[in-house]
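Worked example
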Amino acid sequence: MSVLHESNLTSLKFLHRGKVRDLYEVDADHLLIVQTDRLSAFDVILPTPIPGKGEVLTAVSNFWFKKLAHVIPNHLSGIDPESVVKTEAEKAQVRGRAFVTKKLKPLPIEAIVRGYLVGSGWKDYKKTGAVCGIQLPAGLQEAQKLPQPLFTPSTKAAVGEHDENISFEEARKLLGAEMAEQVKNATLALYTQAADYALTKGIIIADTKFEFGTDAAGKLYLIDEALTPDSSRFWPADQYKVGSNPPSFDKQFVRDWLESSGWNKQPPAPQVPADVLQKTADKYREAQRLLTGA
């Protein structure tokens, strides 16, 4: 399994290195997004990559982009990533782990949707009886399915900083009322259809996040990645029970190790042991196999 911590493509203009993705300009209308094997946890980039993670994210995202294209258009251009770089060494870096996308303007929020009461939502509920300001019925338990999925947007932090939950009213101020409604509706529709499908494959999608962008005419597109083990909490349906947080097919395994390590969640992150990296890689691959059949 190949490992790519950072890409180095000299035949294209380098634009930006994010937490897990590297961005290049193909031409005035297109970008190349390379999914590396870097892993970000608690908004900090870990020093040790997860083998093959970028390939899993690319395959799973491509699967969902195609499956959910009837809900909202996405940023994929249909151009083969290997066709936009020059050397064999560069083709090897993008093979199976890159998208050529339309150049769109990203919206300044992350669109988070929660279907189950877990993680920061559970902590919030125990303190306030609400999740991100949305009041919920009393007496709910950890990991319980919510009466209906919640749209809980957040800010998009720079590398090394933390995203912050915001209210829908704040999202309306950032995006404008009409665009905020479009994003909320698209987020809930994408999640509902994906969650229904995943359940038929033995996976519960407890929560996920989407990112959106607009073209010059203001049309909304799904961008970035979609419904991957990086951006979602995947639970094995056969191990789910209300009242406890099930084992998951995602980076929660690494998060749990980091929580138990005594790390203060500030850079630099600790070196992750090889067995934890391998177990995480295996979980990502298993999620891909169950969801996509490949």
